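The authors assume throughout that readers already know how a fold can be written as discrete tokens. Each protein is reduced to its one-letter sequence and a matching series of backbone shape codes. I therefore recommend that a typical entry be quoted early in the introduction. For illustration, here is how one protein appears when written out as sequence plus structure tokens:
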Amino acid sequence: MVTQQLSEYIAGFSSASLPPEVAAKARHHILDTIAAMVSGSQLKPGRLAIKYARSQRGRRESTVVGGNLLVPAAVAALANGMHAHADETDDTHFASRTHPGCAIIPAALAMAEKENCSGKALLHSVAVGYDVSCRVSRALGLAHLGFHSTYSLCGTFGAAAAASSLAGLNARQVSWALSYAAQQASGVLSWVRDGDHIEKAFDFGGMPARNGVTAAVFVQSGFTGVDDALEGEKNFLSAYSSAPNPQELVSGLGSRYEILETSIKRFPIGAPIQAAADALLLILERSGV
């Protein structure tokens, strides 16, 4: 079963040897995302996320960037996830049409702080989160999704994988966390009409980060679930795609690291126009304008 194989990969990833180039790339993306969180916390989506987080105070588990407060891990993941996408400087994985960092890294930071994890554990959790998030998108098949948003759907699973790794869940527990991620995964492309960028920041970063942490904490708290939510009868992939390919979930595991294929933006604008902006600057530079 692909869910079992993927769950075993996630559960064992923290003790696996991380290739130096993967570790270096994970550090780079963590730093880049933290910078996005800091700048995004000053914008309207970030300010409102902080306001919401203040209203949700409970267990003092994880830090909200720019808010000077400790809140439950899932709340911190939501706020910091919104920060991370607010100014459009989050990273991009073009092949899967996702922005992995704004969901996975806030979830990983919140869970790592809650669990008092090491920096090494954080790096591993981020790398495995990227592997899972991008593969979920490949398994769905971009041409068969309708109006569902890959950014929120896939980020939820990446965040759940990262949080599960940091929570120390075993393979069966990870499969349950993935099932709870599937139950929460949502998002439609109506965010394109959000002129204030608030709902978009929630869809891309806050919601999947929160849902991923929630899934892992559910299982950490004793919740059990379904073992085959990704390929069994009435599964997640079939619910969202008319032509899913479950084998994409496990293709290249341990040899193809998706974080290596993820790019960091040069400009604080949407990924589709990065190349155009770069070309325009080059033209201006060469023409002496």
In short: The radius of gyration is 18 Å. Strands lie at 62-64, 69-71. The domain at 2-287 is CATH 1.10.4100.10 (2-methylcitrate dehydratase PrpD).
